[in-house]
Amino acid sequence: MNHIIIERRRQVVLKRFQNYIAPEAISGCWNWTGSGNKGGYGRITNEEGRVMLAHRWSFRRFISEQMPPVVMHVCDNPACVNPSHLVAGNQVLNMMDMWDKGRGKPRKITREQSTLTIYSREQLEQVKVLRAEGLTQMTIKKMTGISQSHVSRILNGAVK
Fold it and tell me: Do 108 and 157 touch, CB atoms closer than 8 A?
């Protein structure tokens, strides 16, 4: 009997999900028309009665019961719940995707404002040269003694 109740709940939530999608012909997105959050992501009450993000519910229902740390949108549309537009990811991949697509807002600081003023111009240039030669940030850290987080900030232009 418990299995029957769970299956009935799944069908009710699926029906509700289908009532709140508006397929878009050109992009292929299934835009969520139900409630959402400030970021534009849809929200749905799942089978357990818990509110969750609609695109994460779609991923779990149509792609995999195993939920990844992050469900990323290939289409970059937060309202989209089309399972073919969703991929498993993690926070690092999500941040890389954001920066690669120009959605990040880098915070530029001057050298005088930075805690990195302990490094000489030559050291900063050496980090950039080593990276251009294909070395990883961890290898640069080991070679220069500059922490990996500082190497990253130097390479991302946070320090001039």
Answer: yes
Between CA 151 and CA 43 the distance in angstroms is: 39
Per-block average pLDDT, block size 10, for the chain (160 residues)?
A: 79 93 94 94 93 95 91 93 93 82 66 58 84 87 83 76
Q: How far apart are CA 74 and CA 87, in angstroms?
A: 7
Regarding whether 75 and 135 lie in a shared domain, the answer is: no
Instruction: Give the residue numbers spanning the domain of 95.
Output: 2-100
Q: Are residues 83 and 131 in the same domain?
A: no
The tally of domains found in the chain comes to 2
d(Cα 96, Cα 91) in Å, to the nearest integer?
9
89 and 18 within one domain: yes
